[in-house]
């Protein structure tokens, strides 16, 4: 999945100053009791940004930067200081720009004219969610480290970036919104006939199927009952989900595997080409934020013949478990 969508022109001129980045001896420091996975550091504080929040940050820093240790972060600005804090593991919406540490040139950025990108604020690569850990909504945060640590080899290749893993990059992140990281509702008793679900500590589901024959009608059950806002038709909803084929027991799609929740429209593709398969839409509308739901979707409530992805053959029964993390 491509997460960065446009390149920006270079805006920084290189200087002759060499700055070496070293790791903080004491590890990550806490921010009002919240401990980020990326330590704050004085070298990351060299990054400044004059652009307005939610727009091209127009960042500058002395060049070349050389990352000689662990990645570092620094809060450039915290907005009005009253925004909700991004707890580790939460889902965050960000705009970001990546700069070449050697030259100061812009490498790539999200599209500031559109909605921000969704990432989990966890210790992983890409680290775009982790950079905002413990910052408040409305904050602008800088991070400096190697491309391998902050972007990851897979994302470098996927976005065709001219970077080696040990090249230094500076990233400026604007934290626009925060949502749940996983369902937090009360556990419910699952009826017989559904796959058994076991959750990993981070919330991702594992499946055990009870019977070789799937149900022939749409079956929906609540695994965790949240008490947040109710999902209405056409809402834009933030979800974590995993989809499994009943016949093969194989995962065909999972936001958990991408470490990036999805923003989906709560409507059927019968009503909106950008919507969901009808069974998923029926399972989603009327549920509350914080809930986790399982839906067994027979072919008649799934993709129309010939319109599903290659990973979902015609006639498949799909099983989705999804966490409702928020409503835009």
Automatic annotation (TrEMBL):
Known catalytic reactions: [protein]-peptidylproline (omega=180) = [protein]-peptidylproline (omega=0)
GO MF term list: peptidyl-prolyl cis-trans isomerase activity
TM ranges: none
Leader peptide range in chain numbering: 1-25
E.C. number(s) listed in UniProt: 5.2.1.8
Keywords: Isomerase, Rotamase, Signal
Annotated PPIase FKBP-type domain residues: 234-328
Similarity field: Belongs to the FKBP-type PPIase family.
Name of protein: peptidylprolyl isomerase
High-level lineage: Bacteria, Bacillati, Actinomycetota, Actinomycetes, Micrococcales
């Amino acid at each position: 999945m491509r997460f960065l969508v446009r390149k920006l022109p270079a805006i920084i001129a290189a200087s002759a100053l060499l700055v070496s980045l070293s790791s903080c001896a004491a590890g990550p420091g806490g921010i009002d009791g919240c401990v980020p996975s990326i330590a704050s550091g004085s070298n990351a504080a060299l990054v400044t940004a004059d652009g307005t929040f939610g727009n091209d940050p127009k960042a500058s820093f002395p060049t070349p930067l050389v990352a000689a240790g662990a990645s570092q972060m620094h809060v450039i600005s915290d907005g009005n200081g009253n925004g909700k804090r991004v707890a580790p593991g939460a889902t965050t919406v960000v705009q970001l720009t990546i700069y070449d540490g050697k030259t100061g040139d812009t490498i790539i950025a999200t599209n500031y004219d559109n909605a921000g990108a969704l990432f989990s604020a966890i210790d992983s690569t890409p680290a775009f969610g982790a950079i905002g850990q413990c910052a408040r909504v409305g904050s602008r945060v800088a991070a400096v480290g190697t491309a391998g640590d902050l972007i990851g080899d897979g994302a470098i290749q996927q976005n065709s970036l001219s970077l080696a893993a040990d090249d230094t990059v500076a990233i400026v992140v604007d934290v626009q919104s925060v949502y749940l990281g996983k369902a937090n509702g009360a556990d419910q008793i699952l009826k017989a006939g559904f796959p058994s679900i076991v959750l990993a500590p981070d919330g991702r589901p594992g499946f055990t199927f009870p019977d070789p024959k799937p149900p022939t009608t749409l079956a929906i059950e609540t695994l965790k009952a949240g008490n947040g806002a109710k999902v209405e038709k056409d809402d834009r909803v933030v979800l974590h989900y995993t989809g499994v084929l009943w016949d093969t027991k194989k995962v065909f799609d999972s936001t958990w595997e991408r470490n990036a929740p999805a923003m989906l429209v709560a409507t059927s593709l019968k009503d909106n080409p950008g919507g969901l398969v009808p069974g998923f839409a029926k399972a989603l509308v009327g549920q509350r934020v914080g809930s986790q739901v399982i839906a067994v979707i027979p072919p008649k409530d799934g993709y129309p013949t010939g319109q599903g992805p290659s990973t979902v053959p015609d006639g498949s029964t799909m099983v989705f478990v999804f966490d409702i993390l928020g409503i835009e």
